[in-house]
Design goal:
- With 192 residues, the chain is α+β, with helices and mostly antiparallel strands.
- The chain has two domains: 114 residues, Ribosome hibernation promotion factor-like (Double Stranded RNA Binding Domain), CATH 3.30.160; 65 residues, OB fold (Dihydrolipoamide Acetyltransferase, E2P) (Beta Barrel).
- Helices cover 31% and strands 34% of the residues.
- The protein has a six-stranded mixed beta sheet with strand order 7-6-5-9-10-8. It has a four-stranded mixed beta sheet with strand order 1-2-3-4, covered by helices on one side.
- Helix 1 packs parallel to helix 3.
- It is elongated and about 80 Å long.
- The mean pLDDT is 85.
Length: 192
């Protein structure tokens, strides 16, 4: 972490055990994503009743570079529905479970986004225009296997749909449409 994590207790007495537990969870967050800028944890006993059964609220703010903070804060009712007798340990574990899930989802989104760039190029194929029905906003491409794929005017990324002719070479990505395989992300290679 670029900035040391902050742990604070409000309206509840902090303990070394609770702080150690929180710092252990923060370490797990760093294991999930090592570019966390900082993490702030606030344990707050907002309400109390005579039987002491209202758990504290654990609020976690995770600062990430180039992204809005991931914030986890649940109301005591969430814990009371999940645990029979929720306490500080349950509140800490549940808040960090949610934080870990959100951080993993954020990290997976980064990985998926990076993979998309390489994935599309690997699935780009060379084909040629097989048919262009007059006055229609679609056409058909012939694949290297000799099959045909439907493509729509909106699938053209480079080149002019209206000037396409039978035999023009294109590159495309094959996707599954509503009725089966289609050509998308069509780029015109040569125009005759």
């Amino acid at each position: 972490m670029q900035i040391a994590p902050e742990v604070s207790f409000h309206n509840i007495e902090g303990s070394d055990a609770a702080e150690a537990m929180i710092r252990d969870h923060i370490g797990r967050l760093e294991d999930i994503y090592d570019r966390i800028m900082t993490c702030r944890v606030r344990v707050d006993q907002r309400n109390q009743n005579s039987s002491g059964t209202i758990p504290p609220v654990v609020r976690i703010e995770i600062s990430l570079p180039g992204h809005k903070d991931i914030v986890v804060a649940h109301e005591p009712g969430h814990l009371q529905k999940k645990f029979q007798a929720p306490d500080l340990r349950n509140a800490i574990n549940e808040a960090f479970r949610i934080a870990e899930r959100r951080l993993s989802k954020y990290k997976d989104g980064l990985v998926d986004h990076e993979a998309e760039g390489t994935h599309e190029a690997a699935n780009e194929f060379l084909g040629q225009v097989a048919d262009m029905p007059a006055g229609k906003d679609f056409g058909f491409l012939m694949t290297k296997e000799g099959g045909t794929l439907y493509f729509h005017r909106n699938s053209i990324l480079s080149g002019d749909f209206d000037s396409l002719r039978r035999g023009d070479e294109v590159t495309y990505v094959e996707e599954t449409g509503d009725t089966g395989p289609i050509a998308s992300k069509v780029r015109v290679k040569t125009v005759r």
